[in-house]
Amino acid sequence: MTDGRIGMMEKISALLENRAFDNFLELVASRLLGRETGLAVYRIGDRRILVDHTAGDQTGTKRCLASGMYRDLLKNLNLPSRPSILDLGANGGGFTMLCDIEVGPLGPVLSIEFNPDTYRRLWFNLKSNLSREVEVLNAAAAAEDGTLRVADRKGSTSDRPKAVEPDGEDVSIQTITLDTMIERYFDGREIDLCKIDIEGSEYELLLGPRATRLNRIRNLIIEIHPSQGHTVAQLEERFEQMGLGLRAKAPAKHGDVRLYCRQH
Fold first, then answer.
1. Positive or negative CA dihedral for 90, 95, 97, 99?
2. CA separation for the pair 193, 211 (Å, rounded)
3. Which of 82, 100, 127, 249 gets the most CB atoms within 10 Å of its CB?
4. pLDDT band, very low/low/confident/very high, at 39 (cuts 50, 70, 90)
5. Is 41's pLDDT higher than 80?
6. How many CB atoms lie within 10 A of CB 207?
7. How does pLDDT run across 129-155, given as a tens digit for each residue?
8. How would you classify residue 212: left for phi > 0, otherwise alpha for psi between -120 and 50, otherwise beta?
9. Can you tell me the distance from the alpha carbon of 198 to that of 255, in angstroms, rounded to the nearest whole number?
10. What is the pTM of this model?
11. Is 84 helix (H, G, I), strand (E, B) or coil?
């Protein structure tokens, strides 16, 4: 199959994903006739979800809601009423809103996105659609608490903190460890469900000395990325030490997305 045909099939598939939204016809028309604007509002019931196609939100926020990548894994869980949610690499908030749709009303939520541009849409989407205990943080999940100067670039689903370039725009953001997240925002209590998609930074976060609270997570959905100097086996050993066992995997077309659950 030629690259051109593959590209066309991917575009058609992306358009068909819009059927998951109430304003399907409006979205298809806007993508066909008004692509230069980039911005679109997707509707599910009374939810209004802002997506920027020029920043890759359609493969982050939109796909979280429209595909089975996370939805099928959620079916493997027996979550309590009003579960607590920790979302790392939140993009525009698609995962948290999916949990609200599929699971029901949520309890405490902490949603973290490092890119300032993407964070603004995340804040709008969650604060506009979830009138509950929602904290939205512009920060990078890391091995140490502190601050980091990063290049100020438009968001992308494959984005991660990058070194500042000479004469380039940069911005200072917070870095925060897993232990600090759980201690500060959840008072050290258990997290019912944590999602991690941080483009390779999961090794630094979870293998570092400030990830002891990993044993406070009951269910973990994580996308594992290749990273030089690290192996998946290191993460698997860490999860086992913390009492988390592999329950399920998403289809390979979604990447290496896995569900780990508390074993006792």
1. negative
2. 16
3. 100
4. confident
5. yes
6. 14
7. 997 789 999 999 999 999 988 777 665
8. alpha
9. 13
10. 0.89
11. coil
Tokens of 205: 């976060």
32 pLDDT above the threshold of 80? no
The tokens 């692509």 sit on which residue?
A: 35
Which secondary-structure segment (H or E) carries 259? strand 257-262
Q: Which class for 93: exposed (0-12), middle (13-18), buried (19 or more C-beta within 10 A)?
A: buried
Q: Which of 80, 46, 89 is nearest to 189 (CA)?
A: 80
Asked if 38 and 53 touch (Cβ cutoff 8 Å), the reply is yes
**Contacts of residue 109, Cβ cutoff 8 Å, sequence gap at least 6:** 84, 85, 86, 87, 96, 126, 130, 132, 133, 134, 135
Among residues 30, 31, 45, 39, the alpha carbon closest in space to that of 98 is found at 45
Inter-residue contact 161 to 126 (CB < 8 Å): no
Both structure tokens of 50 = 């802002």
